[in-house]
């Protein structure tokens, strides 16, 4: 009847918990579990150290031209996400003409001179003005130490009245303080763009800010302080001259403005030509003139002329305020590309945009046409800002659709790709740091703060000069192969022509790989910066290769370790199986030992008896001349009865010590006669009792212990007759006509008739296995549990004891022996060593009285026999008599 132990408790909630997850071993940990003896660890492939030094020591010759191939380091632009770079430039309060100590005064003078209209009516109150001007000339913008953020501090009146607190705007790519120079701005802000442009990437720089904040100054500059455009042109042509690539590259410049005269519709004016207004088709301006430029002077002249045409006007905020959005495009192209394919398709464009500054009517004091221009300017600035804002929000939340604010102005339409994040753009915000300009600065910075988080997915196809996809798709394979040959030829020719033998020729593998995937290569001489990039690329490439090799090695090592681990697991499994089998075997043995102890003992006795019988039988044949036919080994009882009246004589042949040693040491299978001789020899020896050390068999400790116990109980030394001589092996039949007596005689044939000293201990080993027989002369004679041919005799006179006190020893019943027979002995081997029959016999001899021998049946004769309840047969009595008479007991 089953009881439900999982009785649910109504008030309890059963929570089923998942089993705990086992933490995975780390490879290191698992390898540490491997056996330390694992010799295969030395066989594992050795992993070489990472060649940092070799890789970093790579050098590229500065003057050697490098050929950019399709496999060369073009960064993966399709997946690169770049943040919109936003720079901030703070216009100084006054032009930096001297020290900054009296900058406020200089700025004031400058403002008094330049600001229009000047209010002359207030000249009387100069003191008050100065005080207020001083206050207003204090900078409201503080640049952080890392030039990444600014703190905008509102002027005290605003703090008091409107409780406006200071604001921190951070995240700028760089903040150019009022002390920054044009070259510094160029190097940090524009130069990367120019580098990219020279590398084939398009880019745009747009200047944003309130009117008079220095946008035009930053973009175009002045003859003293050239702005970004002239510096860019210088940079471009400088690099072109340094690499002497004029034959392969050309630059084109276009400049135009978008304005709205008198508040009318926007129009596009090409400032480099006298053409009428241009129209815009999608994002392209139709009819825009691109002027090829060959040097800086030519370009600067072109720009100067164009700026003269630009719409400017004087306002209260700026004496020469821009009234239009001015865009300058510098396009780079190659001659080959120009000749063979479309010019526009395979060139990079660098655009620099000078936006008209947002204006506040209060500050500018514009009226009429100026005011209409202000609306246009502000509207364009607003649309521009809205486009960026929409892009930011769209990127922030893709579910939010990208608003098409770009459609609201020509400028944003033209810059659509940039404003939608498809092309890379850089913004520079310009602000004035005066307290009066706090509101303008605050508005701009608040508006532009999200712009810094805009990302550009530069999906623009790499206009890598000859590597134009459209071009390659349009041309057939034959043409492409021809072009590749041409490119190779040109490359080799150019290298020979320009740099001679110092040049590094392109690897054949590079060129073949280039032709394989058909991304063409173009030989381009690179300047020092390009060489740096190339070196960096090569280092990275080498790093990648080395890393790959190391990973390969680790992979191999891992495989080897895994196979080794598998082998070890299999071994472990086998060992477990073996251990289980052995445990089972052990259990069986234990059960056998505990349950059938008596059976085992009897079986052992039977085995020994059989051995003895067989030995005696054979011996009798040889030495006593008794026919084998007369022997009936199967009827031992009968033999015993027959032997009871047959006297026996045992003669021991004297032997020497060496034979004794030989006898004890041999493990062969001597013949019965040999055994007899050996035993006789051994018995003639007086071997010290301490022979049990090396010569005595250690595995017979049980018997020795038994013998010792008998020794202590020895009460009648007279039972043992000390004699120096042993007699054995000779059987004298005293009762003729009893042919079966030979069986009993054969039992005793190998049993040694000995006379030993009390202190002698003889061990005779004549076996191929480990069994042995211990004989206590005069006391006990028995058979060992020997299996097979082994015979070992241990004779120790010292151990001679009366047999009456040895009842604790399992003395086998001689009457039972034959009946048990060999059935069980054949099935299983004896597990225990029992007393040999010889010892039992000796015991019986010692205990038998003369009277007992006279009795036909020895029932109740000896104490020992009586104790065991055994009835002595006539044959055994006669045998005992015989032994006693021969041993002189
Ligand atoms: N960093 C500067 N260092 C010296 N002078 C500067 C600097 N920035 C601007 N200025 C001067 O300030 C005046 C106004 O500058 P600019 O015309 O560049 O302003 P703007 O932002 O272009 O104004 P607008 O939008 O009205 O055109 C110029 O005379 C210019 O020389």
Automatic annotation (TrEMBL):
Protein name (Swiss-Prot/TrEMBL): Kinesin motor domain-containing protein
Biological process annotations from GO: microtubule-based movement
Source species: Gossypium darwinii (Darwin's cotton)
UniProt xrefs under InterPro entries: Kinesin-like_fam, Kinesin_motor_dom, Kinesin_motor_dom_sf, P-loop_NTPase
Record carries keyword Cell division: no
Composition-biased stretches (Basic and acidic residues): 648-665
Family: Belongs to the TRAFAC class myosin-kinesin ATPase superfamily. Kinesin family.
Residue numbers binding ATP: 209-216
The entry's keywords: ATP-binding, Coiled coil, Microtubule, Motor protein, Nucleotide-binding
SUPFAM superfamilies reported for this sequence: P-loop containing nucleoside triphosphate hydrolases
Source species, domain of life: Eukaryota
Ranges in coiled-coil conformation: 551-592
ATP-binding recorded as keyword: yes
